[in-house]
Amino acid sequence: MSLALAIACIASIHDGDTVRLCDGERVRLANIDAPELSGSPRCSAKSRARLSASANPSWCDFATGTESRDQLRSFLGSGSPMIQRLGVDRYGRTLATLSVNGRDAGEYLVRRGLARRWQK
């Protein structure tokens, strides 16, 4: 993976921390966790119990999840998004930072309470 910045063509915004690029690449924003959307399997009773002691338990505030997704869409649409690829997660998604005009999308969401820092 390259650490260089490149222009990112965003095809869709899945939620507050996952997007799909125009070439089909799935990208997970590095170092943040956004709330889940309604219907997320992470919010089933079984998953919530399994993840309750995790450093990153399920965050099932669906209204905030919707707001997080919508704010990420607005942020990325405010200019030319840039991507910095950092690696790949266990689900095969590219881990990356996305920025617009030098402003980091993840930090933007964290400052607004629409995402939290990922705990390692």
From TrEMBL:
Pfam families: SNase
Transmembrane regions listed in the UniProt entry: none
Domain TNase-like: 4-120
Protein name: Nuclease
PROSITE patterns reported for this sequence: TNASE_3
SMART domains: SNc
Protein species of origin: Novosphingobium barchaimii LL02
